[in-house]
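Revision sheet: structure tokens.
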Amino acid sequence: MVRKNDSDKVSVSRERILRAVASSSAIETGERTENIEKRLKHC
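Predicted:
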């Protein structure tokens, strides 16, 4: 994603944030990303 100006805002969906958190947690815990995503979606 390329921004034209430093002041341009970037919109990030909730889905992408959940995926990033789940991926990071999966790396740290060894648990499957899909399982973590399911738990996060139900919060």
